[in-house]
Design goal:
Blueprint (H helix, E strand, L loop, with lengths): L3 E7 L10 E9 L2 E12 L4 E2 L4 E2 L4 H26 L5 H13 L5 H11 L1 H4 L1 H22 L11 H13 L6 H20 L27 H9 L5 H16 L3 H5 L6 E4 L2 E7 L6 E5 L2 H9 L15 H14 L8 H15 L3 H8 L14 H17 L4
Antiparallel strand pairs: 1-2, 2-3, 4-5, 6-7, 7-8
Helix pairs in contact: 1-2, 3-5, 5-7, 9-12, 9-13, 13-15
């Protein structure tokens, strides 16, 4: 019986530009050890669990990294058992076997399917070509969005990744209709079936994946008044969560998107009739868009006040990090909804409608008509201020919606 161990650890090299360190792998066999290679995974020190030798990040990128580590651990274990059965067991033999395996690793998923579609276009048919190309384009966008990578390997495909891809299609690409969403996922499943026939996959990644039924997909989610209050009262031990919470609440009270808040500077603030407002452009450059600074957003702006004209008013970080921290915030506040800035905007619209604010005023603040059949009007600032007081009254004195 041999003593065989696999060790993943953070390298001591200088940090990358993003402040991360590479994860390395080392093997131990009967008192001997050998460094194999970098796993091509980088992670910040505070997100590395040294005891369990895995990534702490509960994000698509974090799950992908842990999946890659588990695949590598299984591969090395299989190589060990194979070498043991052939009586060629030594640290050097294992290292060589690993290097031989690494050379034969599969190519990128998107790259493979692009080539497959080019070579089989005549057989696939025109309609399927359109569907396949669209799904591969969506997959490429998802990989860039979630992993900041150009492609992933077939070994990276697993049920959690497929669920994350499905959530991305629904939340970021707008495929909210259950049938449309299922069609996109089924099209990808069909492509993976072709890859399995060509030997690119040993097992169907959709084994263990469950398609969401029509009933299980929440079409419109929003925060209740009590959930607004939970977020406002929450006290966090880390400044990063407090900053993200404040920016999220700012979106809930103003109806502004992530990109709009990120672009806000002091030049967007004006004083009008004794009140402070955010002034943006509407549907066209010559249409002003007035957003009243209600009490809570005003307090948040004062908290992060800056007088520099080209400096952002709020400390909004990258969207990926923001979404990661919003998950932590939801967990700490016991809010069982996916907190995103889209949810914040939906919550603003829903709460304003419930408070009795007119569709014209909400559409003006929102920057787009709530009803596509209605033209976008420009209510007066006086009317906007008067109506938005109803919004404040509901959030301050109202009960759960």
């Amino acid at each position: 019986m041999h003593d065989f161990k696999i060790k993943f650890y953070l390298g001591q090299e200088s940090k990358t530009a993003t402040g991360s360190r590479p994860v390395h792998v080392r093997i131990y066999l009967d008192g001997q050890r050998a460094y194999l290679t970098s796993t091509k995974i980088t992670i910040s020190e505070d997100m590395w669990d040294a005891r369990d030798e895995q990534v702490k990040e509960e994000t698509p990128a974090g799950r992908l990294k842990n999946h890659r580590l588990s695949i590598l651990r299984k591969t090395l274990t299989d190589l060990y058992h194979r070498q043991e059965a052939e009586n060629h067991l030594s640290v050097e033999y294992l290292k060589q076997a690993y290097q031989d395996w690494a050379k034969t690793c599969d190519e990128g998923v998107c790259c493979f399917f692009r080539q497959y579609i080019r070579e089989n276009g005549e057989v696939i048919g025109h309609d399927n070509l359109i569907r396949y190309n669209l799904v591969i384009s969506l997959l490429e966008k998802y990989i860039t969005y979630a992993y900041h990578a150009a492609d992933i390997g077939f070994a990276d495909l697993c049920p959690p990744m497929l669920h994350d891809f499905s959530s991305y299609l629904r939340e970021e690409e707008g495929y909210t209709h259950p049938r449309t969403l299922s069609n996109k996922v089924y099209t990808f499943k069909t492509l993976l079936g072709a890859a399995m026939e060509l030997g690119m996959l040993a097992q169907d990644p959709f084994d263990g994946y469950h398609f969401q039924s029509t009933k299980s997909i929440v079409k419109t989610e929003y925060l209740t008044v009590s959930e607004f209050h939970k977020l406002q009262r929450a006290v966090f031990t880390t400044e990063r969560l407090s900053k993200v919470r404040d920016c999220f609440l700012f979106a809930c009270y103003t109806g502004l998107s992530y990109q709009e808040i990120k672009a806000l500077t002091i030049t967007h603030l004006i004083s009008l009739n004794g009140s402070m407002w955010i002034l943006l452009h509407g549907a066209t450059e010559d249409i002003p868009r007035y957003i009243p600074l209600l009490p809570l957003p005003s307090i948040i702006l004062l908290k992060y006040r800056t007088d520099a004209s080209n400096t952002a008013l709020l400390p909004l970080i990258s969207q990926q990090k923001t979404n990661l921290y919003l998950k932590e915030i939801a967990k700490e506040c016991c809010i069982y909804k996916p907190l995103t800035f889209r949810l914040a905007v939906r919550s603003f619209v829903k709460t304003a409608l419930t408070a009795g604010v007119s569709i014209d005023t909400i559409s003006h603040i929102h920057g787009k008509p709530l009803l596509h059949t209605m033209p976008l009007s420009t209510p007066s600032p006086e009317k906007i201020k008067e109506e938005m007081q109803k919004f404040v009254d509901l959030l301050v004195n109202g009960h759960s919606l």
